[in-house]
Structures are given as structure tokens and as C-alpha cells.
Amino acid sequence: MSVDTHQASAPPPASGPGAALGADELRTLDAHWRAANYLAVGQIYLMANPLLTEPLRPEHVKPRLLGHWGTSPGLNLVYTHLNRVIRARDLDALCVWGPGHGGPAVVAGSWLEGSYTETYPDITRDAAGMARLFKQFSFPGGVPSHVAPETPGSIHEGGELGYSLSHAYGAALDHPDLVAVCVVGDGEAETGPLATSWHSNKFLDPVHDGAVLPILHLNGYKIANPTVLARIPDDELDALLRGYGHDPLHVIGDDPAAVHQAMARAMDTALDRIAAIQRAAREDGATERPRWPMIVLRTPKGWTGPAEVDGLPVENTWRAHQVPLPGVRDNPDHLRQLEAWLRSYRPEELFDEDGRPRADVLACVPDGARRLGATPYANGGLMLRELPLPPLERHAVEVDKPGATMHEPTRVLGDLLEDVMLATADRRDFRLVGPDETASNRLQAVYEASGKAWQAGTYDVDEDLDRHGRVMEILSEHTCQGWLEGYLLTGRHGLFSCYEAFVHIVDSMVNQHVKWLRVTRRLPWRAPIASLNYLLTSHVWRQDHNGFSHQDPGFVDHILNKSPEAVRVYLPPDANTLLSVADHVLRSRDYVNVVVAGKQPCFDWLSLEQAKAHCARGAGIWDWAGTETGDREPDVVLACAGDVPTQEVMAAAQLLRQHLPELAVRVVNVVDIARLLPRGEHPHGMSDFEYDGLFTADKPVIFAYHGYPWLIHRLAYSRTGHHHLHVRGYKERGTTTTPFDMVVRNDLDRYRLVMDVIDRVPGLAVRAAAVRQRMEDVRLRQHDWIREHGTDLPEVADWIWDG
Question: Three-class SS of residue 496?
């Protein structure tokens, strides 16, 4: 069997002429690194005796050993060397820590620099605080094992593999003074999203954006297997990274002194090149796309840890991934090895008798907000400014009479977004992202204010490409989401526009962002950030041309499974309600807002003032659409949520007015879908009193819903009138067909809704049998019509509201 091998070049001298570091600086950097390694090991294992002032005993060790050692030494090395260059160059820097479960290292670095104690005053920078630091790690009531919202200086969940680089690029956008360093683990480098995010350098503007310095950390192994990029030959890896548009610098070795020298040289070289690129673009007017530097750091997995345990190799193998010595409390040999391991860092040289870091350890640490754990870029709410939104009256459509005119809602929204782009042209803190769909989703008015960010080659046929643009389009939903998350987390605003069916691609990413928001709401030191706003359009009911593959409304179901204090879902039925909802979500903080709105022409139902009032209620009666009179209770409630369901309910209400004029019909429209939940389960939920007042407690409710019908049942299952609730929605009966045939196939059409009313209102089954038969006949006729003519029935295609 043969394997690919790589040969490291001869290590550079540890110090002396030509070395990047003098003897004193090398000594102090190594002291900081050893101190961070000691603290990382202590967090994984110890709950007492933090300075080893007495021989280690089993009771000093945690009963449950959780955490990950393998990546920590490499992350500690990066933290140490970032401290050095930040201090020397007075840099604004942020680090995105990509490797999973690197928490011990990043917490260690922030404790050493003092930012951890400033954030959590009970974790003092002394022996008592060190003991608490150790015990809290992966301990009930403590902190997670990965980099998390609780970690000062973090904007990236450490267990969320694949998105670190897109987060770093999002952070750098429109922050021209920032260097966003991103440590990419070689395990996460195998994911599709990470592989695509290397292309973000084709969108980074060296004039208005900051820089991203990727550090690909190759320690060779994942949980139980080697990693691909660590096992391909050096020349192949180098060619791959150069193909991505980077100029890689390689740091390889296992001798600490040599690696310190090589890492210092690489950092200095990379930062010098970044400064030169920015200077050429900003001062000399250079327009050629630069080849940005990056660092490939190849050090052993579990470096400086136990070389062998129970006769098996550990350091530089997959066995170093988590807890190298698992049986410390029960196995005396493991206990002895742990103590020897901890003492190998010579803690007495690193901490004084009171447990405080010695001067050598802190010599490289920058001051104040320059510290990685204290940078305001990682607590973006501190930098957030109100978004300058225009008056809605400027963009509202005139509605003198409901249903008399039609507009494309997202095109109307596009005009508002153009104004937002113009108002933020100088401050550059708003971006629109989407996977190649801005114009398709009718938002192209924004191009009048800002083109599409683009640094690669251009042709004469290209339109709206702009080296300084703030519209971001790449055909990777993962990368769009990562850019926007990084942008929001560092203090800016944005909107993600996407085809409804394909936003599912980021399901796992939005999971983590919701969890992040839920945790940060409980951290008083984390300032609120702008909400993550989705505009889902090209939706299920108007993907009749693309067909079944483009028809899936289930993202709403996914979102409403998440933490109710952090998620909101809106289904505006027309252009003015979309404007009102957009204004609300763009002003909001610490939410994930999902707005589902059509891009095809739809009826204008509400004036702007009516739309504002309706959206504020979240759900309400459209008394002008129904046939309730006086004090009489309705015989039936026609409810709707979504633009196409609203149109079908309105058409059904009109048919009922024509054919069953004596029937008292109430029309209820729902914009905020969480209103259906009980108040105790969601902040926007209705009390039972409100719900029964709106939908009644005992009358049939025929609910036409945009998505999967069982969601409405799930939201309203505990209501008194739930057994009277009948929901129509999407039932996975999609194809390439006409718009109206889509609703007929899924039993959401107006004729089916009228039939549902007749079937469920007591006494109508016999009295209105002829009406029901006429409704069924129309459904059968439309089936034959569309197959002959390829268009919908004229009475459907030309329908208008005449209420």
C-alpha cells in the first residue's frame, strides 16, 4: 500500500541573525503559548488544584471528561502570534475560529489577556479564578466545549463546520480597517460550503472592504480518519489553493522554536502583502484582482500532549482528537501521565504564587479593544446604527378600492430597497444577498443605487457588475447566508432574497444562528444585532413553469420549530402589507424573520394605512370582504395566510355572496403566522379569548394556507374550536402546469373552498347541493380546458374582485 507523503523543508533557525524573532521575543511568545496550552488541558481535566501546588489526586479531576484537545495547541499558536502582530502593528483584528470544539484554546487566550475576566468578573485572573475557569468548562451550569456565544471575541459557533470562511468574509465587508483572520480546520475544509467559500475573494473589494487572512490548519485527522487536504502532496495542495486565488505561505513542523519562527515570518509576510494590496487599490487606483495571501499551518494533532497511551500512539493521530487520557480517575497510570503532561509546560514559570500570569506570558498581549476577546467587531451590536428607512408613503401603491388594481409586491419592495441602498451609500452598512436571483425576484431597482460586487473578469455583455457594489450574488445559498451572518454579527444590516424551495439548503445554518441569538439574549454583555431577514419569493404557487422541483414551502415549518423568542414568520398578502412588514423586520433586532411574498402581479387589497394597522394586529377580520351583518355571528369563517390563498379565499367569498347570499361569512387574514399559537408558547401568540373572538369557538373555519396544511393544525391544536378547523394547503401535488391548476391539484382553489363551506356548515349539504355540484363541474371543466388550451379558464384568468 502506498500513501501520499509530504516533506517539510529544513526548519529555520530558532533565533539569531535572519530570524523573525529575537531570543527575548521567542521566549515570551513561547511562554504565552505554553500558558495557553496549560489552561486548555486544565479546562478539560481539572476541577481543583489548578496550579498543581500538591500532587494530583483523582478527586482533583472532573468525573466526566468532555472536550477536545487535538485542535487546541494549533489554535493557541495562532492566538499567540495574532497577539504579537496586533500589538506590533496596532491592528484592528477579529479571529473566526473554525475548528470544531476549540473552546479550551480560545477561552484560555481571552483569560490570559484579561478580556474573559472583564466579561465574567467572578472568573478572576488568579488561582481562584483559574479554578473556576477549569471547573466550569463542559460542566453542568458552565460553558460549552466549543467556541460559542459565551466566548468573548467570537462570532462563530465552533461546532458549525463549513461556514467559518464565509463568516470571516462577511465580517470584512465594508470594514476597511479590519483584518478578519479565519482558522479553517482540515476537517471542515472537506465540507461543500467551505470549499465554495474560498471563492469569496472574488467579491472582496480592497478599497472599501477589510482583508481576510485564512489559516488552513492541517493537523491531519478528524474524529477517526485522516483528512483529505493533509494527505495530498504539498504541490497538489499548493496548486489547489492557488487555483482558488490565494498565495499560500506554508508553516510546517513540530519543533516549537522552529514553528514560532516560521509562523512569525508567515504572519509578517501575509500582513505586509495585505497592506500592499490595499495601498495599491486605495492610493494608486489598482483594479486588477489581487492574489490574497493565506497561511497553511501543518502541526501535529494534539501537539505537546501524550505521545502514547496504553501502548498506542496518540500525539499526531486521531486518538488526540478529544480526551487523550480518558481514565484518569480510575487508572493510576493515566493520572501520572496527566500530571506529567501538565507539568511539562512548567506552570511555575508561567504563573506566580497567586496564579496570575507572569510578565513574560503577557508581553505579547495587546491593550484594550485591540485584544481578540475585547474587539467590538465581535460584539457587533455595539457598532450598530439605525438603518435609514424611507417613509413608506414614498413607495406605497394607491388603493382606492380593494382588488381594483394589481402590482408585483417584490418589485414595489425593490424600489424601497433602492432608497435604502442610496441612503447607506456613504456609511456602507446595508447589503442585499441572494443566489443569482435579485432580478428574478423583481428587486432589480437596487442596481440603480449599487451594482453587484464583482472582482473577477468582465465582458461587454455583463450588466450591473461593480467592483464596489453592495449587492452580493453567488449561486451558493450557504455562502450567501455565511456572508450575511458575518455582516450582521459585526454590526451591519442586510436582507437575504431566495427562491422559497431552495432556502432549505441553509436549514442547518439558520438552526445555529437561532441558537446563537437565543443564547446572546441571556448574555447582558452582548449588544443586540440587526435581525437576519429572509425574503422568500418565487414561491410554491407560482413555480408552475419550473415545476415540482421548485415547489416546497416547508422552510416556515422548519423555522417555527425553533426558539419562539427568536423567530418570526410573515405572509403579507399584497404590496402594501409587504412594505409594512419589510419596514418592521429591517428595524428589528435579534430575530430571524421569514417573509414570504410573491413576485407575480397580485391584487392590492389594503391601503398603506390599512396595511400598517393590519400588520400591527398580525391577524384580523376583513369586514368589507365578508357578509356579516349586525350582531349576528358568522355561519362560517374563511381564513387565509399568503397571497395566493388570500386571492382564492376572496374569490370563494365572492362566489358565496353570489350563490348563497343569506350565509354570514367572515373573512380573516393572517399576516403573522405565530399569532395562531397560544400566548404562552410564543410572544406573538393570541390568548384563547382573542382567538375565539376572531375565529369563533364553534363555527366551521375553512383555512387556506400558503404551505403544508398540518402546520396550521399544529399551531392551533389546543384551541377550543380546533375540531372545527379545516385547512387547505400544499399537499406535494406539484408539476409544470398553469397557476390555477396548481391550486386545484392541491385542493386550495376557490371552488373547493366553497364546497368545503357547504360540507361543513350545518344544513347546507342539502340546501346548497346544486351549488356544490356547479363548483365541482367547474373544477372538472378547468382540467380539460388547460390540457386543450394551455391556459387557465377565462373566468379564472380574468377574475376581478367586485365586492
Answer: strand
Q: What is the rounded average pLDDT for all residues in the chain?
A: 93
C-alpha pair distances (Å), 410 with each of 335, 401, 449, 612: 65, 21, 17, 17
How far apart are the C-alpha atoms of 200 and 202, rounded to whole Å?
Answer: 5
If pLDDT is split at 50, 70 and 90, which confidence band does 528 have?
A: very high
Pairwise CA distance, residues 273 & 128, whole Å:
44
Nearest alpha-carbon partner for 114 in 341, 318, 356, 348: 356
Q: For residue 340, give the amino acid letter.
A: A
* 3-state percent breakdown (helix, strand, coil) of the chain, nearest 5: 45, 15, 45
Q: Which tens digits make up the pLDDT trace of 581-622?
A: 999 999 999 999 999 999 999 999 999 999 999 999 999 999
Q: Please report the pLDDT score of residue 384 as a whole number.
A: 98
Q: Which three cell numbers stand for residue 370?
A: 485591540
Check residue 209 and report its DSSP letter: S
Residues found in the chain: 803
Beta strand pairing call for 602-603 and 567-570? unpaired
Best CA proximity match to 486, nearest among 167, 158, 162: 167
**DSSP summary character for residue 8:** P
Query: Tell me, what's the pLDDT at 16?
Result: 47
Q: What is the largest CA-CA distance in the chain?
A: 102
3-state secondary structure of 668: strand
pLDDT band per the 50, 70, 90 thresholds, residue 547: low
Radius of gyration over alpha carbons of the chain, in Å? 31
Report CA torsion sign: 421, 424, 430, 435: positive
Instruction: For residues 641-653, give the mean pLDDT.
Output: 97
Say if residues 627 and 658 touch (Cβ distance below 8 Å). Answer: no
CB atoms within 10 A of CB 443: 26
Q: What are the grid coordinates assigned to 261, written together?
A: 519562527
Res 259 pLDDT > 90 = yes
Among 579, 601, 551, 509, residue whose Cα is nearest residue 746 = 551
Given a contact cutoff of 8 angstroms between Cβ atoms, the answer to whether 461 and 449 are in contact is no
| Residue 466, beta-bridge partner list | 453
Is residue 664 very low, low, confident or very high in pLDDT (cuts 50, 70, 90)? Answer: very high
> In angstroms, rounded to a whole number, what is the distance separating the alpha carbons of residues 142 and 158?
16
Helix boundaries (H) for 310-408: 332-343, 347-350, 359-362
Q: Coil, helix or strand for 633?
A: coil
Whether residue 551 is predicted with pLDDT greater than 90 in this model: the reply is no
CA–CA dist 471, 451 (Å, integer): 6
Q: Terminal CA-to-CA distance of the chain, rounded, Å? A: 80
